[in-house]
Design a protein that fits this description.
The chain is an alpha+beta fold and 341 residues long. The protein is 41% helix and 25% strand. It has two domains: 184 residues, Ribosomal Protein S5, domain 2, CATH 3.30.230; 139 residues, GHMP kinase, C-terminal domain (Alpha-Beta Plaits, 2-Layer Sandwich), CATH 3.30.70.
Amino acid sequence: MIYRSKAPLRIGLAGGGTDVSPYSDQFGGAILNATLSLYAHASLELIEGNSIIIQALDRKEEEIFEWAKELPINGHLDLLKGVYNRVHKDYGFPEKGFRLSTFVDAPAGSGLGTSSTLVVAIIGAFVEMLKLPLGDYDIAHYAYEIERNDLQLSGGKQDQYAATFGGVNFMEFYGGDKVIVNPLRIRQEYLNELENNLVLYYTATSRESATIIKEQQSNVLQKNVASMDAMHQLKEQSRMMKEALLKGRLHEIGEILDYGFEQKKLMAKSISNNMIEEIYAAAKTAGASGGKISGAGGGGFMTFYCPGNNRYKVIDKLLTFGGEVKSYQLTQHGLTTWTTQ
């Protein structure tokens, strides 16, 4: 039997960065995000013998171990090994050989929440195989604990919840790891127009989000006034975006994105750079009314809102920078698991 799962990647539309501690613990954060038809996939299969085979098929990486209760965390395939270690510790695992294989539809460090979404997908495969009694909030929090506590990786909280719940959500973050996910009931014609007008562009560069996030966290701890005020404004931006989507005021979305992009750059110096600024200016000249850098910033994906039929002129301009425009659809479903022969 093969136990499979997939979890969707996400784009953050507003409030990005306010889900990161210590800001969210002190002031409360708010983010609006949407999941895409790009996924992290995981497959878990029992095999003959006592070997544990860990594979990242998209990266052509593999490690093989003799069966053990705990696998070494050494900077190689740690997300896969970290989930196994935690699941075995908390729930146990049959002393049998198995193969854990993963594949992600976007590069690591691209700003679509790939790492956290992959952790959610891997947990999903173990949930499917072991019939673990975990609901959506449980799985998302479990993924957060594995990344932030077990593996000591820097980052926020939104990605785990977006991957698990799916759809368009307004998320609130509080101290004590309290998270509330509010699914938004947006009219289908508004979603169709949003999907049509949002262009997803990969800059063909990736970045180490942890470095940017640590700078952002340091600014909060040091009470950097400009950085903290920017986070306050981004939290308000998420509420502005929520109202625009629910009420169908789609003509405001580009301006809301543009406002958020300017605020986000104040959170940490490394969020933007000359390349990002040049691409952003060119997209606006071609007809985008606003946009943003995805995830922590510094590279990866950018998103542009292109009203009317401007998306085609914007795409033509973006392609001159040597990156890739990624096709996608907005999705309504989060983590999905199943069993096959």
